[in-house]
Every structure is written in structure tokens, then in C-alpha cells.
Design brief:
It is globular and about 45 Å long. The chain has one domain: 3-Layer(bba) Sandwich (D-tyrosyl-trna(Tyr) Deacylase, Chain: A). The longest helix has 16 residues. A hairpin with a 2-residue loop joins strand 1 and strand 2. The strands form two sheets. Strands 1, 2, 3, 6, 7 and 8 form a six-stranded mixed β-sheet that branches. Strands 4-5 form a two-stranded antiparallel sheet. It has 145 residues and is of the alpha/beta class. Helix content is 23%, strand content 39%.
């Protein structure tokens, strides 16, 4: 699985003009299931993200996780993270998991984050979404497992 993680002071996702998920301080996680991914990949990714120390401590060092801070996560599916730009000018997405597989792994991943005691808001799989965020830092991290 592949994720783009952004530390945010706030974030929301809107579908058809309606806010369907929003958080305050925490992490915006854009996630993509790739061909061949399994629940074990989702488990590994969720565990790493839950413990990822990218929030500042009292000394101003990145030393605290979203778990440590009591922050929330907004988990949004984004198959375009599978983009292959190696040929031509139009990206290919053939390495992304098939939609049914992708949806199942996306929902499973969100449940694994939730299972760590982290508040989770979500987008709508396959929908045309507008995502808003205030990037904190900015801190943006790419993760593949």
C-alpha cells in the first residue's frame, strides 16, 4: 500500500457540496491500494502511521505520534498515488488495485487506524472529492509498504 501523509492543523473532505469528513489537528492520509496488496500490507502501514513521530514535543523536536497527541486522522482514498509517469505525458494507473479490492483494503486500513484508538474521519471511495487542508510545518511524508 502507498500513502501520502500530511501533518495538518485541520482538514476536511467534501462531496457534492457536503462536508462528509473533517478533523482538527492530526494527519491527512491519502492512501492507495496497489495490485497484490493484502490486509497484512494495510496492517503494517496503519501501525507505522499510528506510531510515526512527526509532531513536536515540548523541546520543539519531532518526537510525538498522532497517538501521543490525541490527534485525529482523515483517511482519503486516492488511486492516483499509483500513477506511472515513466512514459508519455498521460499517467497510467494499471498498478492500482482493482476497485473492489481497493475499496476493501481502504476500509480495512481505516479500521486498523481506528483500532489503535485514533479518531478516524473518511472520504468516499471512488467519489469526486474536494479535500481541504492546512498543512502544518509543512510536514509531508511518502510511505510505501
Amino acid at each position: 500500500m502507498r500513502a501520502l501523509i500530511q501533518r495538518v492543523t485541520e482538514s476536511s473532505v467534501t462531496v457534492d457540496g457536503v462536508v462528509i469528513g473533517e478533523i482538527g489537528a492530526g494527519l491527512l492520509i491519502l492512501v492507495c491500494a496497489m495490485q497484490g496488496d493484502t490486509q497484512a500490507n494495510a496492517d503494517t502501514l496503519a501501525a507505522k502511521i499510528g506510531k510515526l513521530r512527526i509532531f513536536t514535543d515540548e523541546a520543539g523536536k519531532m518526537n510525538r505520534s498522532v497517538l501521543d497527541t490525541g490527534g485525529a486522522t482523515l483517511v482519503v482514498s486516492q488511486f492516483t498515488l499509483a500513477a506511472d509517469t515513466s512514459r508519455g505525458n498521460r499517467p497510467g494507473f494499471s498498478t492500482a488495485a482493482a476497485p473492489d479490492e481497493g475499496r476493501a483494503l481502504y476500509e480495512y486500513f481505516a479500521d486498523q487506524i481506528r483500532g489503535q484508538g485514533i479518531k478516524v474521519a473518511t472520504g468516499a471511495f471512488g467519489a469526486d472529492m474536494a479535500v481541504q487542508l492546512v498543512n502544518d510545518g509543512p510536514v509531508t511524508i511518502w510511505m510505501d509498504v
